[in-house]
Amino acid sequence: ASGNSTQDSATAKIAVIARAPHKRSAIEDKIIHNLQYFTFLDDRRSFANVDALLTRLAPVGTVYLACTETVDDARGAGGKKGNRAAAEVTELMSKLENVLESRSDVTTDASNSGCDNDICVNRLDTMSKNQAT
């Protein structure tokens, strides 16, 4: 858990940016998509709010997954505590990736995506806080 009093060890802070179709107001309207931003706390065991958001945003084709807490940042805590935190970051990312990949009911036609799963999940490398500053 972070120093944020609204977050505890059972929750994770999630931020989502989604590209959604833009409703055209006129034929001259050149905007095709809008970006929507969502931020919320979610249960680390089930990621139920992420699951509900996938339903709301359907159809979903590609998801890019990243974390602001890198394994290197977690290890910076040192010793057993740092190794435990690093393992927790890795486990949470894997759990979230599994939730995303399991939702075959909210996908677009995946035959053209080149992915093994219905939703194409791409894990992005996350720069450690030390490298970012």
For the structure shown, list the relevant keywords:
two-stranded parallel sheet; 32% helix; alpha+beta; 133 residues; disordered N terminus; two-stranded antiparallel sheet
Poorly predicted tracts of residues: 1-5
Quaternary status: single chain
How does the helix and strand content classify structurally? alpha+beta
Please tell me what the overall shape is. elongated
Largest sheet: 2 strands, antiparallel
Strand portion, in percent? 15-25%
Number of strands: 4
Structural summary, described in words:
It is a single chain. By secondary structure, the protein is α+β, with helices and mostly antiparallel strands. Helices cover 32% and strands 23% of the residues. It contains four helices and four strands, in the order E-E-H-E-H-H-E-H. The strands form two sheets. A two-stranded antiparallel sheet has the order 1-2. The longest helix is centred in the C-terminal third of the chain and has 24 residues, at 79-102. The protein is elongated. The chain starts with 10 loop residues before the first strand and ends with a helix.
List the helices and strands and how they pair.
Blueprint: E1 11-21, E2 33-43, H1 48-57, E3 62-65, H2 71-75, H3 79-102, E4 120-123, H4 129-132
Parallel strand pairs: 3-4
Antiparallel strand pairs: 1-2
